[in-house]
């Protein structure tokens, strides 16, 4: 499965499982989805994830805050048919639309939290997230 075509399936799996108030989400994975999970875990947006190589599935423990999903909504920003690339200046304007977003850069996958310390880089915009704060 192509790296960018699995991204919508990952986001839909997250969204569906949050809407159903499930603790875990399971889906097929590839290298991009594992990179995304690592970034989300490192930034505290998911509790954990476990890879099952025999079934080619990954199980993600979703994070809740005060009995509400931490992630309120997910937005696919680049599609396989229409990829969006932004420079460093354009990325700053996304802070007003999304609480968190991920881009693919020449330095690897970076989140909006990592971009604050690396403000001279642009790349392919992958997805945005709105968070439940309180």
What does this molecule look like?
The chain has helices at residues 6-19, 31-42, 88-92, 112-115, and strands at residues 24-28, 46-52, 57-62, 64-65, 68-69, 71-76, 84-86, 100-105, 108-111, 123-131. It has one domain: Ribosomal Protein S8, Chain: A, domain 1, CATH 3.30.1370. It is globular. It is an alpha+beta fold and 134 residues long. The strands form three sheets. Strands 6, 7, 8, 9 and 10 form a five-stranded antiparallel β-sheet that branches. The longest helix has 14 residues, at 6-19.
In one word, what is the shape? globular
The parts where pLDDT drops under 50 for at least 5 residues are none
Q: What's the number of extended β-strand segments?
A: 10
Strand content: 35-45%
Terminal Cα separation, in Å?
38 Å
Number of helices: 4
The topology string of helices and strands comes to HEHEEEEEEHEEHE
* Corresponding CATH architecture: 2-Layer Sandwich
Overall residue-averaged pLDDT value: 88
- What share of the residues lie within helices? 25-40%
CATH fold title: Ribosomal Protein S8, Chain: A, domain 1
CATH class: Alpha Beta
Structural class: alpha+beta
Radius of gyration: 14 Å
The total number of structural domains is 1
Characterize the main sheet. Answer: 5 strands, antiparallel
Helix-strand blueprint:
Layout: H1 6-19, E1 24-28, H2 31-42, E2 46-52, E3 57-62, E4 64-65, E5 68-69, E6 71-76, E7 84-86, H3 88-92, E8 100-105, E9 108-111, H4 112-115, E10 123-131
Antiparallel strand pairs: 1-3, 2-3, 4-5, 6-10, 7-10, 8-9, 8-10
């Amino acid at each position: 499965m192509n790296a960018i075509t699995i991204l919508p399936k990952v986001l839909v799996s997250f969204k569906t499982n949050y809407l159903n108030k499930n603790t875990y989400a399971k889906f097929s994975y590839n290298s991009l989805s594992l990179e995304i999970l690592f970034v989300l875990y490192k930034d505290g947006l998911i509790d954990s994830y476990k890879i099952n190589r025999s079934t080619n599935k990954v199980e993600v423990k979703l994070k809740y805050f005060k009995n509400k999903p931490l992630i309120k909504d997910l937005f696919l920003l680049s599609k396989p048919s229409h990829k969006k690339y932004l420079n460093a200046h354009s990325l700053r304007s996304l802070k007003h639309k999304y609480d968190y977003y991920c881009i693919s850069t020449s330095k690897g996958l970076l989140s909006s939290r990592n971009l604050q310390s690396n403000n001279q880089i642009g790349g392919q915009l992958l997805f945005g997230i709105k968070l439940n704060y309180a």
